[in-house]
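Quick note —
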Amino acid sequence: MTACLYVLLWVHSALAVKSFVMVPDRTLYGTTREVRANEKDTLLDIARDYDLGYNQIVAANPDIDPWLPPNEELVLVPSAVILPQERLNSGIVVNIAEMRLYYFFSTDTHEYFLTAPIGIGKEGFLTQLGVYTIKSKAVNPTWVVPESIKEIEPDLPDKVPPGQDNPLGDYVFRLSQMKYAIHGTNKPWGIGRRVSHGCIRMYPEDVSVFYPIVSVGTVVHVIYEPIKVGWGDEKCWIQVFDDFDNRIDDLYSVAVNKISQLEITVGPLDVDSKAISKAIKNKTGVPTAVAYRKNVNE
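Predicted structure written out below.
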């Protein structure tokens, strides 16, 4: 079985992880839909069902109580994504600001990507931006508690064996700076939140898909891109997340600059400045159309 078929069959069996065949000149993928909450749902349940993080489902539904959504309430499921500006022929891009990772790979005939939500470092513990490689990976890992964490939580043991109390979950990828890892979790409600000491957490069902297909030596780029601009369906789209680390002084200028860069590829655009401003103000994380091709006959 080719690597391509293996990946597609594995992902199909896991349903939750989103996989896409990449199309030239397209950077918008997926769809946004509405579903009805039932009386037992929280927004976190719906987020996990559709492989979204807490940040995404809450930002897209700001008027709904995430813990007690009304029965039969329409919930927006923001399953569309714009690819990050940083992309690889083969490797992982982790967008800390979006709390989502992307795995890019290719075969002789097609390019693909898989994407999944993540939990990230709490304030003061964000993963350092930069380029890493996966140095090792393991099933049912033992967590050797770092001294820096024991200083904060002195009651922790030196080691936590595999099992339900292990915060690494069932699978771990250790990065070239060994204090960081991409791993599962025993607390899935932390996906889409700032909860870790710098490691990148994934839903158990997601990391189980990535584990057999992501090899040791894979490159991992960690970036911070709260505002993304892309192209699809003959429109320019913007996707805005909270700049929680306050790294960008003027999001509007960043958006306009990115749209200008896109025009080099797709040609002149009619830009809706009000739509840009609204998307930046609301920060829903839902891709919004903000520009269209100019009518050359005008």
